[in-house]
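Exercise 7.
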Amino acid sequence: MPAYLIADVDVHDQDVYAEYRRQVAPLIQKHGGRFIVRGGAHEVLEGAWQPHRLVVIEFPDMAALKGWYHSPEYAKLIALRQGVSRGSLVAVEGA
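Solution. The predicted structure, written as tokens, is:
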């Protein structure tokens, strides 16, 4: 069953975050993931949530998603991302 990482990220330094994006893409691909949504335009239709930069990444399953997230290679990128942004990440299984 596919699994999805959903992220809402408020970026404070676009230049450093661009480096994060450059490095994270091949690592996601290495773990079988692919971007579904990557910071495109969005509109809140209901509720009070005011998302910033939305990202949705599909992985083959939850094991692949967690393998990527907990990998030593991504640990370095987490520190880079968290240094220039704030946000929330959620892992959810698909249908």
